Amino acid sequence: MHKPGELSLTDRDLAELNAWAKDRSDRALRLRIVRDAAAGLSVSQSARELRISRPTVTAWRQRYAANGLAGLEHRPRSGRPARIDEADVVAATLAGPPTPQRVWSARALADHLGLSHTALGKVWQRWQVRPGAADTPLLLPVDPPLPCHHPELLAAGSSADGAAYVVIAEAAAGQQPRVGAATAEERQMRYAALTAMMRGTQPDDPDAAGPRSKGAPARRPADGGTRRPAPQAAAPALPPSLAARWSARRLHVITWGDCVGPQGLPHTARRHTAPAAMGWASTVCLMAQLELRHQPRPARVALDSLADAARELPKSPPGTPFRWLRQGRQEAAARRRTVHRAFDQPALGSFNEKLVIESVRVRGSLSRVEIAERTGLTPQAVSRITRNLLTTGFLVEEERRSTGKGKPRVPLKLSEDAACAIGIHVDPEKITHVLVDLCGNVRDTHTLDVTARSDPQTCMDWMTRTTTRTIEAAGPLGAKILGVGVAAPGPLDVHEGVLLDPPLWAGWGEVPLRAELNRILRLPVLLEKDATAAAIGERWLGAGESGSDFVYLYLGAGAGSGAFLNGDVYRGTSGNAGEFGELTAYALGRVAPGGGPEMVPECAPMSAVVARAGDAGLTVPGGEVTYDAVCGAAAHGDARAVGAIREVARVVARGAVAMTDLYDTELMIVGGPAVPPEVAELYLAEISAAVNRFPMARRVRSVRVTYSTLSASAAAVGAAAGVFHMAFAPRLRTHSGAAA
Prior knowledge:
Elements: H1 11-21, H2 25-38, H3 43-50, H4 54-67, H5 69-72, H6 86-95, H7 106-113, H8 117-127, E1 138-140, E2 146-148, E3 151-158, E4 164-170, H9 184-199, H10 240-246, E5 251-256, E6 270-273, H11 280-294, H12 296-312, E7 322-325, H13 330-336, H14 349-363, H15 368-375, H16 379-392, E8 395-397, E9 412-414, E10 420-426, E11 430-437, E12 442-449, H17 456-473, E13 481-488, E14 492-493, E15 498-500, E16 510-511, H18 513-521, E17 525-529, H19 530-541, E18 550-555, E19 559-565, E20 568-570, H20 580-588, H21 605-615, H22 627-635, H23 639-663, E21 667-671, H24 680-691, E22 704-707, H25 714-728
Parallel strand pairs: 5-6, 10-13, 13-17, 18-21, 21-22
Antiparallel strand pairs: 1-2, 3-4, 3-7, 4-5, 8-9, 10-11, 11-12, 14-15, 15-16, 18-19, 19-20
Helix pairs in contact: 1-2, 2-3, 2-4, 3-4, 6-9, 6-11, 7-8, 9-11, 9-12, 11-12, 15-16, 17-18, 19-25, 20-23, 21-23, 22-23, 23-24
Protein name: ROK family protein
Family: Belongs to the ROK (NagC/XylR) family.
Organism: Streptomyces liangshanensis
């Protein structure tokens, strides 16, 4: 052992050093530093020759002098992983920050993941990552390298012995228009939830612990820490139907360990070997992020299926390998849905125009031939209608695309600047005001914090001032405003446009909100229940845009539901359809002595979660326990916070079962202020388990439970979408005014 300050090398020392650094470029620098010291070079001379800092030279000399070769081993900083899972780093980059900023800066992400800024920069360089450049392909550092632009995740599997595979296909350019893009909240939720679940499909491996955000819980194996025995069978063969469907695709198979991937793949599939720094679970999550970014519609269905498979694995016997196969595209469901068809009578020209707008909006972009195929209109009618819509600026042309023989087709899409609408969400805690263009982009946002003592006149004055300023600031787009949509908690009188004693506002009484805003703004004003508005927003701009029937479960200060049935929003006779609390009470048998439903505290999820967390002993240093604080604690693995949310979610889930039986739908969307991304999976898991276990028709119908793409802003954006829905949704009306 060498004394600090003294450094001399014997022949034996030199031999040990050379053997230690042989074929290790990362150790060569430390070897040079020690040899320079033994040769008598000063710290300054050695630093100058090696082109490094003097503190670095001094540190390595002192560590070798004190501890010999052990002192030269790399020691990661406290809290930093010994080995970086680079796929995890890239997936976190694509998911984006849980803050209003649009993309990560290198330093912010490094701090979030607990990595050094230098290490993060090297990962970005190897993978050719450029944050914010959505259309730049990544370079997966597999062998051979794989440029990945628009991937589609087709299969994934792993076993306890480290063997794993991922099958992906590169989508053709222009095959899937980017429409209904995933919001930052949705990307964050799916990244956090899927990462946790996919890591749970593998035994714990402390050496492979990749980066995680500060305070996040350590990874735990799905079987409680017991390493599963290696499976007896190799990866299964593909079903013949899938093998045939994939035969025309350009497939890539990435493998880990001794795995060769599923049997039955086309011989043209390219094989790639993953490096040690690229984890299997994080690669699956990375592929999910890429697909969610470029093909949001089919990705949502596939990722819900993948999440369900991951949830089921802990229930399987130890040793069961994880396997998931993509079972088809969302278009299969689209073929079953009821679509509007065209009418040829001249009097229905307006209906047919709306039909064309609806078709283009749902698909993102369509050529004239494709519009005719989807609507049933004649080519001549499509030509006339699209010419009018191009002239008025509702449609714009994209670049021509070749489809083989014949003249290249010209895709048409909606113009973002063709129209806009204001959406206002009146909530007991905050009023949210947004400006939304025709393509669903939120152009401007304002909020006003309110309390139970806030009076209606002050709130309406703020709404009118903010609307006027927003329209003026929007410039030419503001001149094309179609109206103002207002979403508010029930009960409402939608025919008269009146709020009826809002439950969490003392002293408001009956507020003629629609009439007052219409009088001051001189604009059309539409009043909707908040859950109904959220359902409209999801149908027009989010996860429900290409589905036929679905139910939206809206969780905020209270709980409500909205429904899209037979191609249109269902409001009920008075506009108060979807009252959720009474359904939950009856589902749980909570009946008052008089026979009516009791109030269910859990149907006010935010306050119920805070109360349960407090009863469990959760405290917040230097402040009161708030819902945001409980969600933050749950995201960091606090058992008391997680338990509080799960308990409330289980009660809400029983009400969701009643809705599933009532409406007989296959899609349930969950969102609202009470479901932020960091705890969304807790709600989704409980609700998904209940609606697929308890309903009467569970043997013939499975229910897909998915996260709202609009989430906390669903009601405000949905209120604006309600204006678009009233203006452009194709519908016929009878002489009595009822929808045909």
